[in-house]
Design a protein that fits this description.
The chain is built from four helices and eleven strands, in the order ααβαββββαββββββ. The protein has 199 residues and is α+β, with helices and mostly antiparallel strands.
Length: 199
């Protein structure tokens, strides 16, 4: 994870919410309690600290890892909510292998080494304009197989959807990728993708 990811996830353990009573001044030897930011509350809600690797879409490293065919577009959104990417577009029969023929995220080499030979869980945290907004995701080793496209769904609020894939041991290598296929019409917003070793 990048230093920014680690700092954000670590901060969730320090955040707390206040009640309706006036705040009391803490003793000089005790630190003041602060309210969590939207991003910190989001990380705590979805337990991102427990993941072995997290992609956050308000992180420059994640953005730089994205690529896409001409049929797709993405837009990074930043406001008072969490950072996220809105993806849209359509391609007939895209392949889930190699880099995938969807919107593609190249994972760090350390992730490829970490998951080699292990079952993993991939959790996509997303939301759509309507309940049951359908999109798809795939995990590709670009070497020893891929998960195929998995059907996922999201509603107007952030939802975490998880699929599993048994990663075979590395042979030639080549980098691991996560592919995303947007809904056939409209878009889906993605805020984070978490990867966990599921041994």
């Amino acid at each position: 994870m990048t230093p920014r990811m680690l700092a954000l996830i670590a901060a969730t353990g320090l955040a707390a919410c206040s009640d309706s009573q006036p705040a009391e001044t803490p003793p000089a030897n005790e630190p003041a309690v602060t309210l969590p930011t939207a991003a910190e509350a989001f990380a705590e809600r979805f337990d991102l600290a427990s993941a072995d690797h997290v992609l956050l879409f308000d992180d420059r490293e994640t953005r730089d890892a994205m690529s896409l065919p001409d049929e797709f577009t993405f837009e990074f959104l930043e406001d008072d909510d969490v950072g996220r990417v809105a993806v849209r577009g359509y391609r007939e029969s895209p392949a889930p292998h190699g880099r995938t023929q969807g919107i593609s995220l190249r994972l760090a080499d350390t992730v490829e080494q970490m998951v080699s030979g292990h079952p993993i869980e991939i959790t996509v945290i997303a939301r759509g304009a309507n309940p049951g907004t359908e999109y798809r995701a795939a995990y590709s080793t670009n070497d020893v197989g891929n998960s195929g496209w998995r059907d996922l769904a999201a509603g107007p609020d952030w939802e975490a959807t998880t699929f599993r894939f048994n990663v075979q041991p590395i042979e030639a290598g080549g980098g691991d990728f996560i592919g995303i296929l947007p809904p056939t019409s409209g878009d889906v917003e993605i805020a984070a993708i978490a990867i966990r070793i599921a041994d």
